[in-house]
Amino acid sequence: MAKLTHDDVLKLAKLARLELTEEEVTSFAEEISSILKFVEQLHEVDVSDLEPTLQVNGLTNVTRSDDVIDYGASSEDLLKNAPAVKDDHIKVRRMII
Q1: What is the C-alpha separation between 9 and 84, in angstroms, rounded?
Q2: Residues in CB range of 28: below 8 A, 6 or more apart
Q3: Contact by Cβ (8 Å): 3, 31
Q4: Which of 27, 3, 1 is CA-nearest to residue 13?
Q5: Mean pLDDT across the stretch 44-59?
Q6: DSSP track, 28-97
Q7: How far, in Å, CA of 45 to CA of 25, rounded?
Q8: Residue 19: pLDDT above 60?
Q9: DSSP 3
Q10: Distance between CA atoms of 79 and 85, rounded to whole angstroms?
Q11: What is the pTM of this model?
């Protein structure tokens, strides 16, 4: 599919909501076709012996483990400090603007 037709470019322009002149359609058909031809060269590269690259800059995940820590306070004790409580939740004013 290295060669785009006039209708292909018009379809792409419609999908992108672009209005193109006939001159632009001809120009883009040539440009996009040359780009696609270049990309098709990637199919010729032998990558069968290569492992997939998942990380290119060497960083690793630095998240901590999710361990439960008991601080010795129950939710009822903590809710005693709240100014207003409703159904075991802290009641606040509505904040929708």
Answers
A1: 63
A2: 9, 12, 13, 20
A3: no
A4: 27
A5: 84
A6: HHHHHHHHHHHHHGGGGS--TTPPPPS-SS-----PPP------S--HHHHHTTSS-EETTEE-------
A7: 32
A8: yes
A9: S
A10: 7
A11: 0.47
**What is the band of 1 on the pLDDT scale with cuts at 50, 70, 90?**
low
Q: Which two tokens stand for residue 18?
A: 């672009």
Higher pLDDT, 67 or 2: 67
Q: Tell me whether strands 89-90 and 85-86 are parallel, antiparallel or unpaired.
A: antiparallel
3-state secondary structure of 17: coil
Question: CA–CA separation, 17 vs 40, rounded Å?
Answer: 27
Amino acid at 63: T
Backbone angles phi, psi at 90, to 5 degrees: -75, 125
Beta carbons of 34 and 13 less than 8 angstroms apart: no
| Structure tokens given for 93 | 């004013």
